[in-house]
Give the backbone structure.
Amino acid sequence: MQPVEDADGRRYLLVKRSGESSLVRDPATGEECYRPNDALTPVETSGLELAAEAVPAAARRVLTAVHDDRGLGLLLALDAHGPTGVRTLLDRTDLCESDLHGLLAELRAAGLVDEADVAGERGYRVTALASEALAHLRDEGSG
């Protein structure tokens, strides 16, 4: 499906084009409606990328940055316990030091964790973006 945009900047997926109007689908809601052809312009993105916009940006960031359950578990633990020192993280997880630091580096690069001072030692905390994403993912899972 071809992505299109109306004059107000709302993006749709083109379902069917006819003489005067086109049937379009809102990727976030799935709702379909007709729009005048002259009010629609093509968008420079793929239909799949547009469909992904149905998921909030913060949640998309977690989904694309976290590669396995260990990464997600680490984010969830930091979110639940607040800023946590590196030594405590090593004690609470089954990660070796190099694996923990590698995982934290990936999460930092994605903007999901920040360094924090915890009782005078280096530690980490989730960012507001990560907290927002995790809250969304938890809400979706409980439905």
About this structure: Residues 57-141 form a domain with the Arc Repressor Mutant, subunit A fold (CATH 1.10.10.10). DSSP finds six helices and eight strands in the chain.
